[in-house]
Amino acid sequence: MSEYHLPPSLAVFERLIDEWLAADMEAPRKQRHTARRVWRRLVDEHGVVVSERQVARYVRRRRRELG
User: pLDDT exceeding 90 applies to what percent of the chain?
Assistant: First the structure.
């Protein structure tokens, strides 16, 4: 599989997304972020202009890496 590169608009928020996903590891299953919820928070709280699909790709990859 080819290496996935973050779009510049999302790269700035990489650490924030990683913090959310790391915190989710301690949360009950039903309270964890879905990729859609991560995208929605980025758009609503931070005004990020990025597609949901790009966020979903990043979340999928990071979840695999985090275990």
Answer: 61
